[in-house]
Amino acid sequence: MAKLLQTGYRDSAFLGNSVLGVPVTTAVVGIAAASAQSATLTAGRVYRLYASVNCFIKFATSPTATTSDYPLAAGVPEEFMVPVAGKLAVIRSSADSSLYISLRSDGTGS
C-alpha cells in the first residue's frame, strides 16, 4: 500500500518554482484502489500537490474520490486554494503510489 503525505510549512524559503518553508505538520494516508482521505485542510490556504503516478482527487467535507474526479498527472505539481475547510480524497489510476500535500506559507492564501 502506498502513502498519502500531507505536510504543512512555515518560515518561507525559495525552492525551485515554489516558495515553501519549514514543515510543521505531516500526515500520511495509504493510497490504493480504494479512496483515501487526508486530514482536514484549512480554508483559504494554498496547498501544493505532487503525485509520483497518475491519480484522481476530490475536495469536499467528507469526499470519496473516483476515477471520474479531477485527474492529477504524475510528476506535475499543482496548487489549489481550499475554499472551505474539508478534506482531500485520492484514488490511484492504475498503481499504488504517494501523493504529497504541502501547505504553502509564503502569504498566498493566508
Short description:
The protein is an all-beta fold and 110 residues long. Helix content is 0%, strand content 55%.
Describe this structure in words.
This protein has one domain. The strands form two sheets. Strands 2-1-9-4-7 form a five-stranded mixed beta sheet, with no helix packed on it. Mean pLDDT is 76; it is low at 9-19. It has no helices and nine strands. Helix content is 0%, strand content 55%. The protein has 110 residues and is mostly beta strands.
Arithmetic mean pLDDT: 76
The biggest sheet, with number of strands, parallel, antiparallel or mixed sense and barrel status, is:
5 strands, mixed
Q: Which structural class matches the secondary elements?
A: mainly beta
**Could you list the spans in which at least 5 consecutive residues all have pLDDT below 50?**
9-19
Q: Into which percentage range does the β-strand content fall?
A: over 45%
Element order: H for helix, E for strand: EEEEEEEEE
| Total of DSSP H or I helical runs spanning 4+ residues | 0
Helix content: under 10%
Calculate the terminal CA-CA distance, rounded to whole Å.
Answer: 34 Å
Major sheet: arrangement of strands:
2-1-9-4-7
Radius of gyration (CA) equals 13 Å
Into how many domains do the coordinates divide? 1
Say how many strands there are.
Answer: 9
The best one-word shape is globular
